[in-house]
């Protein structure tokens, strides 16, 4: 898990990191701290976070504005506001904030938020994509199809595409039983993202039309029928 905390109060940052280090020392948890919202935004472009703790009242860019920009880049990140003024809470609905913590935040309130997100993450499945630009966590439910291009893999999602070196065979094995089907030597598709079939062409949710291999056609159609029957009950 990766956490970002943005607050211009050095004392709060020190107390917050001390609490996290004390409670989650045994977990693979990384905390990045920022005193300026613009620094966080710059980092956010290449590094994804599971939770972002934001002070609402900061000089360069306030927490509400910062949260809106973060939400535009990532719909899934959990945003937690830090404030001493409860009246700001109504604005949190605009960015789907997870929670408000009143300052100074207590050990109990911080642990409640982190534990909640850990439980939620454990119930959702995802892939980690690593490339020269950074590390990205991609929810399986967001993947439309995965394509093999020479020595690299292109993961096409609802919000764009990401590249990583690898082999499609490895992804096919890894995603077995997760609703994906290898329709062609170059394509592994999410069955739930198929929106149309015409002959041996399949149209995906992002408008891409992909070919189905001749030997895969019947098995592919049977997999789609099985998915439809499963979702009908």
Walkthrough of the structure:
By secondary structure, this protein is α/β, with parallel strands linked by helices. It folds into two domains: 2-122, Response regulator (Rossmann fold), CATH 3.40.50; 126-231, Beta Barrel (OB fold (Dihydrolipoamide Acetyltransferase, E2P)). The protein has six helices and 15 strands. The chain has helices at residues 10-23, 37-44, 63-73, 107-122, 168-174, 217-231; strands at residues 2-6, 30-34, 51-55, 78-83, 99-102, 126-131, 134-139, 143-149, 152-157, 160-165, 180-184, 187-190, 194-198, 201-204, 209-211. A five-stranded parallel beta sheet has the order 2-1-3-4-5, with helices on both faces. Helix 2 packs parallel to helix 3. The radius of gyration is 21 Å and the shape is elongated. It starts with a strand and ends with a helix.
